[in-house]
Design a protein that fits this description.
Chain lengths: 402, 548
């Protein structure tokens, strides 16, 4: 990329997810943050049904009040997995009288939350297309999307997390009594029951009796095949920290504390506010906790981010017992609402600087990928063709690398 | 009856002419369809333009036919002249073919037009002859003569075909260039142009490999370096490829204005000048003219473009000192870092060592004060300059020196350029079968010198196309070769004379110098005389036109 050429960034928002609307807001915050003298922005909107659109009118959030597909200048598009296209195909099913074209994207910026966006799917598409993209790669995205897997990996890396029991749906439907017994041998009430992969409050229940536990498990089983039963951290406050970076260079932001924690922070309260509400929710920045505890939390955040091989940005949510200063990592959001701009602002970084840094990190990560070899020539095909397909298994001397 | 015999006779000659036109097309192609150069090549050896067998065959068969003219109604004269014709036009063996004829559409247009022209003449002649009063034998002889002339004129038919097709070619060429321009406008990569008398292809490949560590670079394939070559690369490989960040265009110059033409097509933002040397001096007349031709690349850069210069070459240094464009990066493998900083030279190499594993040296960025240690599996010290030039562009493109060093480890030497192979007998073969030029040969010979185990054999037909410097440079080659080689085989006694003199100047033992006429003889010699542990260096870039 030439120094005297603008960088074209494709910002993807919307998405087939319950967090579609939050994503539209985040997407517009991201697009507005970019300095237009150095960046060309291509808005890419995925509607609730999963149709892809692009076009100038999508830069205006006002246009989303109506059915935007009818607005002039909005065209169907798709992100091509063909490496040569390196971007969007506009009007991919052009008929005889229309024309398809290509917009090259230098970097893709997914501003999607939840399913089909924060879970490694869009990231996988970018990997196939071989375009640098902002945020976590497929593995970290998919991993942190699954609460059970995340806990296992974090526990292995020495990051403190609350105890949990994993329940599979068919196990629960088959032998519910055994499941309840198993939970009770590990955890004391109250507990929380959550679907493993859903990002929001949906399907989450709190239980302090067998009866409520069974009810919550039934609800959760409607949302996911994998269910997580977790000890409730009574009397904990919620503290959030954002991290940004790649590889060995990861920075932590100031901490925030959402304020309605006073007596008893219920998960329900948090989830009912929803991600979108987070921006307007009252919060205390920096969180009123000791310097030592702040540093401890920041360090855990960095460790956790590295443990899941994160890159780009994340907001990591903690539960902290104020008296004992015990810290539990609760959740890693690899595409946090508003990209935690407000936290980095406290660190002296404007939104424009945050998005630029994220683009740079995306390029660094891409450069790292370019250092791997993908094209490894073997004579396997020629050998197999000569020998007939039956002989393939015998061709063990041919190394393969993909 | 005479009608049929004349048709038959001329038919034989016509088929012969077709074959000869087709055969000649290969040489015309090697001379890039430049009629003057092609004619000069033809005139260099009598058997090229006046092969003996057809003339003799026609002469003898005509004489016999004339003697038998008394025998009335005999088929014998007809049979004799036809057999003579067949004998005349029967294609001679092809000989050694290094560069095959490529059936490009242009070549085929020329061949077909030339063939059609020859056919029209023959058909016209047979109609004319058939309408003359029947004087049998003479008619046959005249027909044969016309056939012979048409046959011998094969080169002229090609030239005529070329002339007739000029407007068509010009039109197609313009369309092809316009198409390439449209492709570049569409996919808009950053264009890097690079030129120099030698080292173009190597530097291009090094640069592409470095840049590919962070971006996507597409270099023009092989040694495509003419306007058409660059167009082919664009139209074939860049069309609809939006993934390319950098398009690296190699630009060669055989005449002034050629680089300007390529630049007009690709609009480079970055330009690299590698060397100005006596390569193709014959065609340019003077080193100044060559330098002027190369400078067209710098002139084509926009004011905010970047020029990259090899400071060690005085002609290139002059270009650097011209002060255009604003951003100029100079590299040197000779200056010390302190001296370089004073001179404004950005990248220098220090502590250069060379082993059989490759080059080791430090690259110092005098402006940033950074340093990286390079270990590159490339042979030949001239590659230090090539790597420095590529590094300058990579760093400008936003790569760190450490990244450059990392990529340099995985470089591959360009095909047939100092590629080492070991034969089943354990003889190491170093092949530098591409541009044998004054800078490259020294590097290659030094590599040969690194093989201290056994005998070190140099096989070379000398360097060509050096114009006035031919004697001088080839003599120098001989002198340097005497330092590094234990045995030398010169291919072609005439053109390698200065090399032999150079060897003798340096006191190279006569018994170890062998002069042969073909490459096969040379290969046979080393197969018989060398043993395990010995090394052979091929320094050879001769087009076929030098063999025939």
């Amino acid at each position: 990329m030439s120094t005297n050429r603008k960088t074209t960034v494709g910002v993807i928002f919307g998405g087939r997810s319950v967090e579609h609307d939050v994503s539209v807001v985040t997407g517009h915050q991201v697009m507005r943050a970019f300095n237009r003298e150095r960046f060309d922005i291509v808005p890419i909107y995925i509607n609730r049904q999963g149709n892809w659109f692009t076009g100038e009118p999508l830069l205006e959030i006002d246009n989303f009040k109506q059915d935007m597909t009818s607005i002039k200048g909005v065209e169907p598009c798709l992100l091509s997995p063909n490496v040569r296209h390196h971007g969007l195909i506009i009007n991919p099913l052009a008929g005889r009288f229309a024309r398809s074209s290509i917009i090259r994207l230098d970097v893709v910026f997914p501003a999607l939350h939840g399913t089909h966006g924060e879970d490694g799917t869009i990231q996988g598409l970018c990997e196939l297309a071989d375009i640098p993209y902002v945020g976590c790669a497929t593995l970290a995205s998919a991993l942190t999307n699954d609460k059970l897997m995340t806990k296992q990996v974090l526990r292995q890396s020495g990051v403190p997390v609350l105890d949990e029991v994993a329940v599979m749906r068919d196990e629960w439907l088959g032998e519910p009594n055994k499941v309840v017994e198993r939970i009770k041998t590990v955890l004391d009430y109250p507990v929380f029951v959550k679907p493993a992969t859903l990002g929001s409050s949906i399907g989450v229940g709190r239980a302090d009796s067998d009866e409520l536990l069974r009810a919550s498990l039934d609800v959760a089983a409607n949302f996911d095949r994998r269910i997580l039963v977790e000890r409730a951290a009574i009397g904990c406050v919620e503290i959030n920290c954002s991290v940004m970076g790649y590889g060995q260079n990861i920075e932590a932001s100031v901490l925030e504390q959402p304020v309605s924690w006073e007596e008893f922070l219920t998960y329900e309260e948090k989830y009912l506010r929803g991600g979108e509400g987070m921006k307007s929710a009252e919060r205390i920045i920096p969180a009123p906790i000791s310097e030592a505890l702040t540093q401890k939390i920041q360090q855990i955040a960095i460790d956790a981010f590295q443990a899941v091989d994160g890159r780009g940005i994340a907001r990591i949510d903690f539960l902290v017992e104020p008296d004992s200063e015990t810290v539990y990592l609760n959740e890693i959001n690899t595409l946090p609402g508003s990209l935690a701009f407000y936290l980095w602002q406290e660190n002296g970084m404007g939104a424009g600087e945050v998005v630029e840094k994220l683009v740079q990190l995306a390029r660094d990560a891409y450069a790292d990928k370019r250092r791997n070899t993908y094209d490894y020539q073997t004579d396997l095909i020629a050998m197999t063709a000569a020998r007939g397909l039956k002989g393939t298994k015998g061709a063990k001397s041919t190394p393969q690398q993909n | 009856m005479p009608t049929l015999s004349i048709w038959l006779l001329l038919g034989v000659w016509l088929i012969g002419a077709w074959l000869r036109i087709y055969r000649q097309a290969r040489f015309y192609q090697i001379e890039e369809y430049k009629s003057g150069r092609y004619l000069r090549w033809l005139s260099q050896s009598r058997r090229r333009w006046q092969p003996q067998r057809p003339i003799i065959a026609w002469g003898i068969s005509s004489a016999l036919a004339a003697l038998m003219r008394e025998a009335p109604d005999s088929f014998l004269p007809v049979v004799i002249v036809i057999i003579g014709g067949i004998f005349a036009v029967w294609p001679p063996p092809m000989g050694e073919v290094k560069k095959r004829f490529v059936r490009t559409s242009r070549a085929m247009r020329i061949v077909v037009t030339g063939t059609v022209a020859a056919t029209i003449v023959i058909v016209g002649a047979s109609i004319l002859l058939n309408n003359l009063p029947d004087i049998s034998a003479l008619q046959l002889i005249v027909s044969g003569l016309i056939g012979l002339i048409v046959f011998l004129a094969a080169p002229l038919w090609l030239i005529l075909g070329n002339i007739l097709m000029t407007p068509v070619d010009a039109f197609l060429r313009q369309r092809f260039i316009a198409q390439a321009k449209a492709v570049l406008d569409e996919v808009r990569p950053t264009v890097i142009g690079l030129t120099g008398s030698y080292g173009k292809t190597t530097t291009k490949n090094i640069l592409a490999h470095l840049l590919n560590g962070r971006y996507r670079a597409y270099p023009t394939p092989k040694s495509y370096n003419t306007t058409m070559g660059v167009c082919i690369a664009i139209n074939r490989d860049l069309a609809q490829d939006y993934s390319v960040d950098y398009f690296i265009a190699e630009m060669g110059a055989y005449v002034e204005g050629e680089i300007a033409e390529i630049c007009d097509l690709v609009n480079p933002q970055i330009g690299i000048i590698i060397e100005v040397g006596p390569q193709h001096l014959e065609r340019f007349g003077s080193l100044e003219n060559i330098a002027k031709a190369k400078y067209e690349l710098i002139q084509a850069l926009p004011p905010d473009g970047v020029g990259v210069f090899n400071w060690d070459n005085p002609h290139v240094r002059q270009m650097y000192e011209q002060g255009y464009p604003q951003t100029r990066l100079a590299v040197s493998k000779r200056l010390s870092p302190e001296e370089a900083k004073k001179q404004g030279v950005r990248f220098v190499a220090a502590n250069i060592t060379e082993t059989l594993e490759g080059l080791n040296f430090a690259i110092i960025d005098t402006e940033a004060g950074e340093e990286a240690f390079i270990q590159a599996p490339l042979l030949g010290e001239h590659n230090v300059t090539n790597l420095l030039l590529a590094t300058a562009v990579a760093v400008h493109a936003g790569m760190r020196l450490a990244e450059v060093a990392f990529r340099a480890r995985t470089l591959q030497p360009a095909e047939s350029r100092l590629v080492r192979q070991v034969t089943a007998q354990g003889i190491t073969i170093i092949n530098d079968a591409y541009s044998a030029n004054p800078v490259g040969v020294v590097g290659a010979l030094r590599v040969l010198g690194l093989h201290q185990q056994g005998r070190r054999l140099l096989i070379t037909p000398g360097m060509v196309e050096l114009g006035d410097l031919h004697e001088q440079e080839n003599r120098k080659l001989g002198q340097v070769a005497a330092q590094y080689a234990t045995d030398v085989i010169l291919v072609g006694s005439k053109q390698t004379q200065p090399v032999a003199e150079g060897l003798r100047d340096a006191g190279f033992p006569e018994a170890r110098l062998h002069i042969v006429e073909t490459l096969q003889e040379a290969v046979r010699w080393y197969e018989q005389n060398l043993a395990t542990g010995d090394t052979v260096l091929f320094l050879n870039d001769l087009p076929d036109t030098y063999h025939n």
